[in-house]
Design brief:
- This protein has about 525 residues and is α+β, with helices and mostly antiparallel strands.
- The chain is about 30% helix and about 15% strand.
Length: about 525
C-alpha cells in the first residue's frame, strides 16, 4: 500500500502555472509550459556557456547532442524481464493524476516478439481518443497502396468555352505553385491553371471561359453526424472534403472555411486570370467571395482512384494507368477519359506521406477523408457506418486482431462511443514494428508516429527534466478528449531493445489534471527509455 504522504507528493503540481493563468492557456490553445530555472534544464556541460541565455534566434534553436555510444540494431538488446519492467514503472503508475485505477489501461510489449512485459486492464474497453487513428491507418493501407497519389484534374465541359475542375481526393493543394519536396502543398493550383491556359491556347480557345466544379469523387457529408457543431466551428475538426487547400486545414480556434471546395475553385479562377485566361463572372480577388463555380458532373468525376503505373517510363510516355478494378483511369493531359478531354492534372504526395502527416497532426478530417477513399476503393460506401464497418473488417481479416465486443464510432476517435482495448492498439503497433506489415510500418516511420519533444503532437510534450530520456527517442500517437488522455507508440530501452506501449486513462480530472495526466504518461515512457530491464 502506498502511504497518503506519497499520494500527496504525486498530486503536487509540476507546472508553475496559477489556476487562472492555466484556464486562460487552455482556452487559448497554448501549451502550458512551466517557467523553470535555467540551470534545472541544462543538459550540456556546467559553466557560464551552458546556462547563458541565448541572445539571438539562432542561438535559441535546439542542437543535437553527440551520442554517448553508437546506436545499435534494436534486436541486439536483450528481451526485458517482465518483473523488472513492472517494478521500474510502479512509481510512475502510482500517481493519482491518471484517475481511478480501474480506468487506467496499459500494456508494454517487446516489439520484435510481441511478448507482454507488463499490463494492467489491457483487455478492458476504454475510450481511446485519437489513438483510434492507428486502427484507421492500419485499414487504410490495406485499401490503398502507400505509393498512391491523388489526382486533381481540369477537363473540358459541355461547351468549348467551359472548363471543369474535378476533385480527386487531394485536400492539401497549394494556392500557388506546388512544392515537389513538400507534402502539404505538393501539388499547386497555379500549376493546374498554367497547364490549363496552355491547353486552351493550343486548342484555339482564347476565352473567356466558365469554370465548373465536379465533386462526384467519393462524395460524402462535410461533417459526421456524430460530431458536435462545436468541434467544427472551433477548428478541432475540419470539413471532410475531397478537394481542398492546405492553408484551409482546421486548427483549434481557426476553423476551415464553410465551403473548402469552392475556395479551391476561386483560387483556380484567380490563377487562370493571372495566366491570361479571362473567367466568366470573375471580378477580382477582392470580390472572390461573391463568385462560385457551378456544380456539374463529368465522366471524369466518376473515374476510380489512380494507381501508379508499374512502369514509370510508360507513365512518362502517357500510357493509361489502371484503376483498382482494372478499368482505364487516367491519361496524361491532352488525353481523354470516357469522352472528357483532360486539359491539366496535378498529383499529390504519396499516400504514405499524406497519411503520416494526418497522423502526426492528428487531423480528424484528413483521417476520415482517407478512410472514406480507401473504403470506397475497396467496394464500400462513404457513409460513416459503412466506413467504420470496413475498418473493423480490415483490421480483423487483414491483421487477425479480434474486435469482438468493441465499438468504433468513427475513423478519427473524435465521436462519442468508441471503445477499444490497449491490447488492440498494441497488436497493430507490434505488427508494424516487427516488419510483418511493411505498409503500416512505412507510414509510421515516415512521421506517422511523432518524435517526443520534436514533431507533430509531441512537439510540446516530454518537456520536463524527468522526461529527458524519452526526448528524441520515443515515438507515439497521442489521444486527447475531455477526461481522456492516451499515448501509444515505440521507445528504445537503455539496453537498446525496441518496446511498444499503449497507455490510456479515460477518467482523469479537469483543468490542471489534463496536463498532469499527460505528463504522467510521458514519465512512464521516459522510464521505459531509462530502463535497463
Amino acid at each position: 500500500m502506498v502511504s497518503d504522504s506519497v499520494h500527496c507528493t504525486h498530486r503536487r503540481l509540476r507546472y508553475a502555472v496559477a489556476p487562472a493563468l492555466l484556464a486562460a492557456l487552455l482556452a487559448a490553445g497554448s501549451p502550458a509550459v512551466a517557467a523553470v530555472d535555467d540551470e534545472a534544464v541544462t543538459t550540456g556541460p556546467a559553466g557560464p556557456a551552458a546556462t547563458a541565455r541565448p541572445q539571438t534566434q539562432a542561438e535559441a534553436r535546439p542542437r543535437l547532442m553527440p551520442l554517448d555510444r553508437p546506436l545499435g540494431a534494436v534486436a541486439d538488446g536483450p528481451v526485458p524481464d517482465p518483473d523488472t519492467v513492472s517494478r521500474a514503472l510502479s512509481d510512475e503508475l502510482e500517481t493519482d493524476w491518471l484517475g481511478p485505477e480501474d480506468r487506467r489501461a496499459i500494456t508494454v510489449r517487446d516489439a520484435l516478439t510481441g511478448q507482454v512485459l507488463t499490463e494492467s486492464n489491457a483487455g478492458r474497453p476504454v475510450t481511446p481518443a485519437s489513438t483510434t487513428k492507428i486502427l484507421s491507418a492500419a485499414a487504410i493501407v490495406t485499401g490503398l497502396p502507400v505509393q498512391q497519389t491523388f489526382t486533381t484534374r481540369v477537363v473540358t465541359g459541355a461547351a468549348a468555352d467551359e472548363v471543369v475542375l474535378v476533385a480527386g481526393g487531394d485536400m492539401l493543394l497549394a494556392r500557388g505553385a506546388g512544392d515537389p519536396g513538400a507534402v502539404a502543398g505538393h501539388a499547386g493550383v497555379a500549376d493546374l491553371a498554367a497547364q490549363t491556359a496552355d491547353a486552351l491556347e493550343a486548342g484555339g480557345v482564347p476565352g473567356p471561359v466558365s469554370v465548373g466544379l465536379d465533386l462526384q469523387h467519393v462524395a460524402g457529408p462535410h461533417q459526421l453526424d456524430t460530431w458536435s457543431d462545436f468541434w467544427v466551428s472551433e477548428g478541432y475538426a475540419g470539413r471532410i472534403v475531397q478537394l481542398g487547400l492546405a492553408e484551409d486545414l482546421a486548427l483549434p480556434f481557426y476553423p476551415s472555411p464553410t465551403d473548402p471546395e469552392q475556395e479551391v475553385a476561386r483560387a483556380f479562377a484567380a490563377a487562370l486570370e493571372d495566366a491570361g485566361v479571362e473567367v466568366v463572372g470573375w471580378e477580382g480577388e477582392d470580390e472572390a467571395q461573391d463568385w462560385t463555380a457551378e456544380l456539374v458532373e463529368t465522366p471524369a468525376g466518376t473515374v476510380g482512384l489512380t494507381r501508379p503505373a508499374a512502369d514509370p517510363a510508360a507513365q512518362e510516355r502517357g500510357t493509361v494507368t489502371q484503376a483498382p478494378d482494372g478499368a482505364p483511369a487516367t491519361e496524361e493531359p491532352g488525353g481523354e477519359i470516357a469522352g472528357a478531354e483532360v486539359l491539366a492534372q496535378v498529383e499529390s504526395a504519396a499516400l504514405r506521406d499524406v497519411l503520416a502527416l494526418a497522423l502526426a497532426a492528428s487531423d480528424n478530417a484528413m483521417v476520415e477523408q482517407l478512410a472514406r477513399q480507401a473504403a470506397v476503393t475497396d467496394g464500400g460506401s462513404a457513409d460513416r457506418e459503412a466506413v467504420t464497418a470496413w475498418i473493423r473488417r480490415s483490421v480483423e481479416e487483414d491483421y487477425g486482431v479480434d474486435l469482438t465486443g468493441l465499438e468504433l464510432a468513427d475513423a478519427s476517435g473524435l465521436s462519442d462511443g468508441t471503445l477499444l482495448t490497449v491490447d488492440v492498439v498494441a497488436d497493430l503497433l507490434v505488427a508494424a514494428a516487427d516488419g510483418s506489415r511493411p505498409d503500416l510500418q512505412t507510414v509510421l516511420a515516415a512521421g506517422g508516429l511523432p518524435i517526443a519533444g520534436y514533431t507533430g503532437t509531441l512537439s510540446s510534450r516530454f518537456h520536463l527534466p524527468v522526461h529527458e530520456a524519452g526526448v528524441g527517442n520515443a515515438r507515439a500517437k497521442t489521444g486527447s478528449l475531455p477526461g481522456v488522455t492516451s499515448l501509444a507508440g515505440t521507445v528504445v530501452s537503455a539496453d537498446g531493445r525496441l518496446l511498444v506501449y499503449s497507455l490510456t486513462a479515460d477518467d482523469i480530472g479537469e483543468d490542471a489534471a489534463v496536463l498532469e495526466a499527460r505528463s504522467s504518461l510521458d514519465e512512464v515512457v521516459a522510464q521505459l527509455a531509462r530502463c535497463g530491464c
